[in-house]
Input
Amino acid sequence: MQSNLIMISYILSAILFIVGIKRLGKVKTARQGNFLSTLGMLIAIIATLFKMDAIPLNWVMGGIVLGAIIGAYSATKVAMTAMPEMVAIFNGFGGAASALVASAELFKFLNQKDIYLQKLAETNSALSVTMITIVLSVIIGSLTFTGSFIAWGKLQGKISGQPITYPGQNIINALILIGVIIASYFFVINPDNLNAFYIILGIGLLLGILSVIPIGGADMPVVISLLNSYSGIAAASTGFVLQNQALIVSGCLVGASGIFLTNIMCKGMNRSLGNVLFSAFGKVDKSVIGSKSVVGVSIKEMSADNAAYTMQAAESVIIVPGYGMAVAQAQHEVRKLADELEREGVNVKFAVHPVAGRMPGHMNVLLAEANISYDKLFDMDEINDDFSGTDVALIIGANDVVNPAARHDESSPIYGMPILNVDHAKTTFVLKRSMNPGFAGISNELFGYENNYMVFGDAKATVSQLVETLKEN
Output
């Protein structure tokens, strides 16, 4: 009877996971999706507690309470602008948890061989299959752990956001991969060989570092969604180790949704996953960096006051947010700007590129946090045709996703990447601190267009000045 109730609970939690992920796909239902997924996990945890027979309950409850405290503290203290870093850390901890649980199962086998083998016989499970899943959990989990913390370091600025490469890097990575396969073989045929296991663990940790270090900051949305998928695959592998259906289902859902999201991000940049992982995309060409100039490009500068007057006289304005808005924490000032323009009778919309920011949905999260109506947020495909009939396109901290070179310059590293058609607007204003290139490491030819004007300064301060000017008139 109890086993049937546990299985029903797992099925219910799986249904809630699926419905929750579906709801997370739309901004309006995202909160409901998050709640349903959380409820499903709670049901799975409670069901698993009834299934347990080895670990003292007070240890488990202590872990739940400690985790709840950390989660509550993080939710209230971490700034919305730090969400990409927080997601990276969550991915890392998820991978580490899977690797640790799988490792614990190995030591359980080593300490209780007769009992363990008897249980495997009762469930018609082969020891070699269990050891293979342990290896997969440890490799993928440890890789996810170190890779996620390298991504966190890049996002935090503690590690250079530029690709870090060295000669023969891909060959060395391939040799390391071959090494872990050989070590895995010797471990599976002889699980008592802990030296092979420790080599597997060490290589997994090393692969996480070496696989993320050569990836530039512009590709962080892809990296984070891929690491999220890795954490799910590691969890699913651990589910097979423990023969826990809820963990298998939830891990597969996370792994699959992460892969789908990674594919969407790659399509948003018109690049393959292999190109993202191995091309060291984003190295800055220092020859294009200057204070307020770009080689071969003549720019026009405008004050914040004059930009405000132009937008005040416009019928329509499309605001394009980017990573610069996140860094400056300007989203609340941007909402005030949109409100002031609407009071003047201006039609205001927001255009969001799929890879704007440093994680999937980064701009949507920031704008929603500033209480900007969901109805005003439009994806690239929905709004691109509207730019040609728009009076002003206001670009706040975005660079590579609005660079017209992506359409025609075959020598450009972003050639072929779908971009927002901001240059089709009658007038464009670009808010930037300087003429430094974006994370792709290239200059933006939009800056020299006849209809473009640069408004230099901190995004938050500049937008605040726009708001004040509109209020005074």
